[in-house]
C-alpha cells in the first residue's frame, strides 16, 4: 500500500465528472438555483446514476452544492467565514461572544472530556448548551462542560435550569483568572441533538472544535463546539475575531 | 424546512446501528484489527447491507474506522494531534517548521488565491510544494503561492526547479518583515495530486487550512495546506505548537 501503487490507479470517473460539473456550476447556474434531477443530469453527462451521485457528494463536501430534503440539490452560496476565538483568549460568555446560552443541566461528560477535566468517570458536571447564529442561520452548537469545582460559589438556589442557569454558570466561571487555552479542530458527524439544533440530519459532516480553558493550573472547562461543515469556514485571525469572507477577501486590520 | 420538521423525523436506522457498532468496537476489537466483511456484519446486526454501509461511513467520518484498498476495514488508532502554526506566527520554512520542501515551479494560482494575492488573473507566481510527515505517515500536503513581487531579489540563475529552488524561495520570503497572518479551516475533498501525496484516493475528505501571510501592508504569500481528515486533529495552542494527543491529554506548558 505505498504511494507507488496509488500512482498507477487511474483517476476515478466521478472525479473527472466532478470537475466538469464544477465548471458547469460556474458558467450556467446561479446561487440557490435547483439542479435538474439525477436522471436528467446523468443523461446529459453520459454517466451512470451511481457515478453522478458520487460526483455530487464530492461537490457537497466542497461546499459547492447543498442537498435539502423536500427541495432538491441547490447551488450553495460561498461558505461563511465564522471567527473561532481570538489569540488572547477570553472566557465563554465574555462581551462580544457570538454564542447564545440555551440551557444548563448536570451531566456526566464523555470519557475523553472527563479525562481532560480530570473528573471521575461517573462524576456530574455543569453542561451548558449554547448555539451560534450567523446571518440568520444556525451555524454551530456547543456543549460546555464545567466541573463543579470550577464554580464552587455557585448554589442551586436560584435559576436551577435553563438559559438563566447557563448565564449564572458562565458568570461564575469568568471570576477565575484565565491562564490560557488551546484548541483542536477535527472532522466529525453530527449527533442527533446537534443535528436538530443545526437544522441537519444526524450524521451530517461537521467540524468539531474542542477548546480547553486553563485556570488555577488545571483544565477549568472544556467546550465541544460543532460547526456545520457545509456552510462554514472557521477563521483564526491575528485581528482577534474579525470575520473574513471567502469572496471579498481583503486584509481587514 | 424549519427545525420543527426535522424534530419529527425519526432517527435514521444507520444512526442507531452506528452507536451499537461503536460500542462493539470499544469492547471487542483492538486498534488495527480487520472487521468482518460487510455481509457477515449485516447478518450479525440484522440490517440491510446499505444500512450497514451508511453506519460504516459515519464511523469513518468520525475517525473510528479506516477503509484501505486491498486490506479491508480496520479499527483506526486515535487521531494524531498535528500542531498548526503558533499564535505569534513565523514564515514557512522557519526553524522548527514541520514541512519538507518538495518542489517549486511557476504556476497560475486558483482564482480565489489570486484575489487574496491581488495578482492578475493569468499571472504566474512561484508555487512551492511541501509535504508534512508525522509519526512516519504523510499527514498533509501544501501549496504555497508566492508572487514574484514578494521575492524580487530572486533570480532564475541557480536552482531553477525542485526542492533546492523551493528552499531559495522560502529563504528570500523570510527576508520580509512578517506583519501578521490569518488562517481559515474548512472541509474539502482531496485533489488528485494531494491524494497521491497523502496515500489516499482522490475525493477523500480533507481539512483545508488556508493561511495568508502579511508583509509590507499586503498579502505576501498564501498557503493552502490539505490535511488528512481521517487521521488528523489540528491543534492550535497557546504554547505555540506543542503537539497534543487525544488520549493522553494533560496540559503541556
UniProtKB/TrEMBL annotation, chains A, B:
PROSITE patterns: HTH_GNTR (PS50949). Keywords: DNA-binding, Transcription, Transcription regulation. InterPro entries: Bact_HTH_transcr_reg, Chorismate_lyase_/UTRA_dom_sf, Tscrpt_reg_HTH_GntR, UTRA, WH-like_DNA-bd_sf, WH_DNA-bd_sf. CDD domains: WHTH_GntR. It comes from the Bacteria. The keyword Transcription applies. Residues 11-78 form the HTH gntR-type domain. This is GntR family transcriptional regulator. It comes from Streptomyces atriruber. The lineage of its organism: Bacteria, Bacillati, Actinomycetota, Actinomycetes, Kitasatosporales.
